[in-house]
Amino acid sequence: MPGTALKFNAQLAPKAGKPVPLADLLKRLKQLHAELTPMEQDDFDRSSSSIKRVVTELASSNLIGHKDKGVRAYTACCLADILRLFAPDAPYTQKELQTIFEFFVKQLKGLENQESPWWGQYAYLLDNLSTVKSVVLITDLPNGEDLMTDLFRYFFDMAATSSPPRQVEFHMTDILTQLIDESTSIPTELIDILLGQFMRQVSSNGTSATRGQTTLDKNLASAPALAMAKSILAACADRLQRHITQYFAEVIYNTSSTEGEEGPDIDELITTHQLIYQIYLASPTVLLNTVPLLEQELVVENTDIRLLAVNTLGRMAGANTASGQGLPREYPNAWKAWLGRENDKSAQIRQAWTELTPAIIANRTQDVSRQVLELLKKKRVDMDEKVRVAACHVIGELDWKTLSTRVASKALIADLNERVRDRKLSVRTETMRVLGKLWAMGYPEVEQRSTLGIELVGWVPQAMFATVFLNDVELNVVLDQVIHSDLLPASSGDDKEIEARVKRMLWLLANLDDKGRTAFWFMVLGKQGQMSKFLGAFIDLSEKWNGGVNPTDESKVLETNLKKVAAVIAKDFAVEAEREKVEADLIRFARFNDRRGYKSLRTCMDPQSDFKAVRSAYKSVLARLKESLASILDTMKMVITRASLLVVNKSIIPSLVDFTRVDSSGLGHVAHAVLKQISTAQPAIYKANVQSLVALIEEAATTVERMERDERATEDTLKAFKQFARQYPAEIPKGRGLTDSLRAFCVKGTSRQAKHATSILLCTERREMHAQWLLDEIVGKLDVDMAGFVPKLSSLSQLMLEASEITNDKADVVTELLIKQVLLVTRKEPLSDEEDVDWVEDEVLDTECQAKVLAVKALVNRARGSVEGEREAVQEMAKPIFKMLGAIVGKMGEISKQGSTPQSYQSRLRLVAAQSMLKFAALKPFEEMIAPNDFNKLALIAQDPCFQVRNGFLGKLMKGLTAVKLPVRFYSIVFLTAHEPEEELREKITGWIKSRAAFYRQQKSVDFLYTFVRLLHLLAHHPDFTNETEDLVDFAKYIAYYLDTVAVSDNVAHLFYFAQRVKQTADATTDSINENLFVISDLAALIIKMKQEAHGWSMQTFPGKLGMPLDLFKALPDSRTAAEIARASYLPARMEEQVTHLTRVRHAKRKVVKPTVAKTPQSKTSTPKKRSSTSKEKKPAKKKAKTTPTPPASSERRRSGRLPASTDVRYQEESENEDEDMKMYAEENEGSEEEEDEEEEESDDA
């Protein structure tokens, strides 16, 4: 059935030289177009005369070549309709079709001008060609390739310059895709045009510093031309694979093979590889045969080409592509080859490989991410510094989602703890910053107690603050920055923000162990207090100097002093080689003479400034420096940040008090500890908040039950208030409520509560009245069997120390009661062997044992409180107390007449007696009373069978020596720990000794070396000493331990001299010749010689003459005796062979402190497990937790703290330059609460 015939019958072409008027022609073409547009192929009569005439006239040159744009535009539309209706057989010859499509191409250029009146017709033509697919007829034309090329060029130029509508863009893309799909061959120029669209992304300065990356023009990155090219590549990947590969193969070959003196054209290769990457993003499969080319480049000899290949494949591996699969799955061989480059011989390539991994970890599968993370662990120990920096930086580039889903395990990043101790500053610095970022990202999870969050970042704070003990001034500067930027960032100063920041600080502290908290407070309060003093002095001098405008003699003195203070400040921020710049910057600041800046700095350091004031002043002074002295801004920011009260200030006290009351999130006990710490370091902060502490004290004192329930929290609060009261007694609030509460604690609270409350009462204006009331209340009603005996005894002990002038009258009565009714009597029923353990923790210590310990302290405090009296009278009064302490130590704590004191009581008494001896030794009148024999007995506590006794005694000893409270002779005791079986304690002591030895070397003092002769004398009097070879090997370990920790090439001659001098003297502590001294002298000389030879040290004869301690040594009877002793050898035969293993050179290893994660804070604390020492063979067996072996004989028990004789004790090397300030701060803040309080008392005495 014939279809619908065309109704149009008007003339379009001119006849007999008579052209159709333009207006009529346009009208007729519009009419024709309107009739053709709705016609369908199935309902169209192709044989009608009208359609044949129209077909002929439309293809005439008169219309196609008409000068009017409108005529041409409508003619093109009508021709497109004709091709649509006649499809698939066009009603034109091949030549006519060629002319028509050339005409179409020209008309489509009109799409560039969207303001043209004929733009709609151009768009219709484009739509028609795309929809009907008649454009594919071009592929059959003789000049089809040229037409295809023209269309590609026109379309992409148009898309790149005129931003066509999305529909036009879509049709152009569709047309070009059809041409590629239907073409039998694809012109090379067409490939160039297509790939050229990706080149638009590469900016003119595309070569980056790494010679492997290019920079992108972000404005062109989303251009329609690029979108079209990506769509075409994706749609025609199979058709274009061969052509794309051929293109890149030629470029890479031609570029790589043009090597001259300068090598290949790297810039051209960079562009080519960038182009490959961009194409990969659009269509990974189109590079099926191109990726192997990159794979081959990975193994070429040229480093630049290898680097390009690594960068390109690495970026491809991390990219999110249209396929969504990723390089590891699409090109497994190339992926495997790329992974192999992590071990490339070029550090530059290893660095580039490392820097490319973040995107891979984030965007690829879990298996791929883990594979890369494992390799990154290797890169963090790479031999090249930059590679290690990059491997650490990578972790900081990951967001929390990636960390929690891809890393998801501490094991994959925990090695960052080691890198923060790297030998290179750049690695340490970057690692510190990364750790800060990790905590900042993970904190919300930690706050919610997320198991994964705590697993991933809970260890981070400990790893960061453990570095403080390394004494790395530059790393400490970075830690300062990280504290304020990541750990405890601050923005506004409103109450809500302050509360959130306080909570963040508490969670941070909750994830630190004791040593970590010590380091935290050292950085936040210790260094702040120190630097505020230095900076305050610097500001005072600067104001007087007045910028140096008046060059008078006084001005020169001020300038000299300024430079001295600047040098002290610089020492805390830069290594010696770089301090000059810091000092110069500080002097420039002083010359600037900014009075307003000085005022702002004082505000930053003022404890009475709230956070808003500190923050405002801090920002103000930095802004002024940035404007006027930008060159010194970095230096001054370091100094000002450390000196400012940005973290701890009076604004945080209310929030801390709230946490102690509500115990929100289980952080109450941490908040109490913070309040206590602030009271120690910055008690002035409490001035504005003292009523908050008073309220807490009064609340806690309401009932005995409340005192016991909130025992530790109340103790911390009282401790904090005590510190404030001692510093600012005039600020103590006057009121009956506070006084009654403190008195209640003195007689009803716990031992420590009573102690702190007594101290506070003695700080008030009515000190004498309170002291007398307490004395009458306690002594008049003191009964061992009554309730409240322990707190009363604790208060009495404190009274005897701090108010001896009031307690002296009743001191004798108290002393008699304590000795006869407390110390010499044991009321506890005898225990079975299983029950009689050697140590009981504080939490479960019974009242009788507490009373015995307090009794000893009270008697000691009686003497300490009277130390300012006449020397002879004081010493006479102290003699019975010395005798008592010596008896406790000598009898292993058993001083009861019945001999039934439990083992746990004995251990406690030994410890308190030994620590009390150290307290006496810190006071000159009492130190003189410690004779050498008493000293030797005290020293043996360092080898006590009970670990807690050894640990407590040594901790107290090291504190006193670090603070220079104890005489140098007490250093000899710490070397008896050579056989210490507890590794943690041994390593701690070893590091401490090295630090102190380094300190004395820096001071160029030989005082410390005198400890060697004192140690030899101590060993000669050791109860285990014999001339047996086995025992001498044991004693050789003491000497080797001393040399391992103290000896260096510069002092080995001194030590050898001292070893020889011992053999030239007699023992001053005995009347007869003590051959033990000569044996130990020969043994020491032998070990020193072997040590010197093993290390290759040069040991010249010591040129000087040094005296020997007169309390230990005296001259030999005569020269004949001296000569005989000098000629004799007191060592067994072949002794050298027995001790060779002790003098081997041990390769130094930097000690690595493993991070520990504190448990999530709980409202209750658990009792730590008991620790006990191991025993040497043939010595008493190791004491178990619930057994009571027969007390060992004197000659045996001293070995119970030593390792088996067969064990070769080796010691890890540790930094000898540990910060002395940090050491002292750490020692002062370690140990039990009781020990801390005692240290404060000693400070007060001093």
Automatic annotation (TrEMBL):
Location within or outside the cell: Nucleus
InterPro entries attached to this UniProt entry: ARM-like, ARM-type_fold, Pds5
A GO biological process held by the record: DNA repair
Protein name from the UniProt record: Sister chromatid cohesion protein
GO cellular component: chromatin; nucleus
SUPFAM superfamilies: ARM repeat (SSF48371)
Region entry Disordered, spans: 1142-1246
Coiled coil feature spans: 690-717
Record field: transmembrane: none
Pfam families: PDS5 (PF20168)
Keywords (A to Z) from UniProt: Cell cycle, Cell division, Coiled coil, Mitosis, Nucleus
Biased composition (Acidic residues): 1214-1246
Superkingdom per UniProt: Eukaryota
